[in-house]
Specification:
Elements (H helix, E strand, L loop, with lengths): L13 E6 L8 E11 L2 E10 L3 E5 L6 E11 L4 E3 L15 E4 L5 E5 L2 E11 L1 H7 L13 E4 L2 H12 L7 H18 L5 H4 L5 H14 L6 H8 L3 H12 L3 H19 L4 H7 L5 H12 L3 H9 L1
Antiparallel strand pairs: 1-2, 2-3, 3-9, 4-8, 5-7, 5-9, 6-8, 7-10
């Protein structure tokens, strides 16, 4: 459940912890809100610690369309979104519950005996997002309120976005852009024919992508910039890039940074902090963890093995 309004999209996340002294709703002992923006979509992650029944108005800024997912819940009963404070949700509980609320619709959250709730909401202007991503087709969910439904694909995409809110790595930009484009594709685009779904980039488009990504390393890159180079929508571009390379754009960028790190490990005497900085990692710990995840060994062990 989300509390107050929405935030403009931003490249970096913001976290705002609150306690009872800040005038929280009744029986909410503590509240933490984290916000980050990708592709004109605002992602809000909210965690509630509760001591009793909770009834709170959500999304007081109702100018944007909202798609939400309940990620975790601890309590004796299930929390639910409501169209009015004293009208129970008419739809039966389902695992991985979600809700969809068009712009200008009021939304309330209710939980009878919660201890902890963790929810994520993405908010956006439908027509603007559709235009920005170059999408056309049937509106999908976009005009129909749904106070409780399940969709494993959307739920998983929102969870992944929420997990990336605090990620400082430059690759998180392409990663979040790709996730928001995938969400928009499910909301806006008509189902694709199987024949066209595997079409990749042309040789020129692929070469342009490689040159652009290489030139920008290790800096943050937006999916919109890559898609514009190819003259494609972001969702189409993500599918075409993966069809051509076998991996998503953010994965290619990460592997390229690790490759550059290997070159520095072999050809320079730089320490891990220096190499981490040169390849866009926040520090040596972040660099070492990512390097080991990709290669199966630590940077120091890899360097020693290659030089002996």
């Amino acid at each position: 459940m989300r509390d107050d309004g929405s935030s403009e999209g931003c490249a970096a996340s913001r976290t705002a912890p609150m306690s009872a002294a800040h005038g929280l709703p009744e029986n909410v002992a503590a509240l933490t809100t984290s916000v980050r923006g990708w592709n004109g979509v605002n992602v809000n992650l909210v965690e509630y610690s509760c001591t009793g029944r909770v009834l709170v108005r959500l999304d007081r800024n109702e100018e944007l369309t909202r798609l939400g997912a309940q990620l975790e819940e601890v309590g004796r009963d299930h929390a639910e979104p409501r169209s009015a404070p004293h009208i129970p949700n008419p739809h039966a509980y389902r695992p991985r519950p979600m809700w969809f609320v068009p712009a200008e619709m009021e939304l309330w959250g209710h939980a009878a005996e919660p201890s902890y709730l963790k929810c994520a909401t993405i908010s956006f202007d439908g027509p603007t997002l559709q235009e920005r991503l170059g999408m056309s087709g049937s509106p999908g969910l976009i005009d129909v309120p749904r106070l409780r439904f399940s969709d494993d694909r959307l739920w998983t995409l929102i969870r992944l976005l929420a997990e990336a809110i605090h990620c400082p790595d430059p690759t998180a930009q392409l990663y979040g852009d790709s996730l928001t484009a995938a969400i928009a594709s499910l909301l806006f685009e008509r189902p694709r024919e199987a024949k066209g779904s595997q079409a990749g980039l042309s040789p020129i488009q692929l070469k342009d992508a490689m040159n652009y990504l290489e030139a920008k390393l290790p800096a943050r890159v937006e999916l919109a910039a890559l898609a514009e180079l190819a003259g494609l929508s972001q969702s189409h571009y993500s599918r075409a890039f993966k069809a051509s390379t076998g991996i998503a754009p953010y994965q290619w960028q990460l592997l390229a940074r690790v490759k550059r790190a290997k070159e520095l490990l072999l050809n320079t005497n730089g320490g891990l902090e220096h190499i981490a900085e040169a390849t866009g990692f926040s520090d040596a710990v972040h660099f070492g963890r990512t390097f080991r995840k990709v290669t199966g060994t630590t940077p120091a062990a890899w360097r020693t093995n290659m030089l002996t």
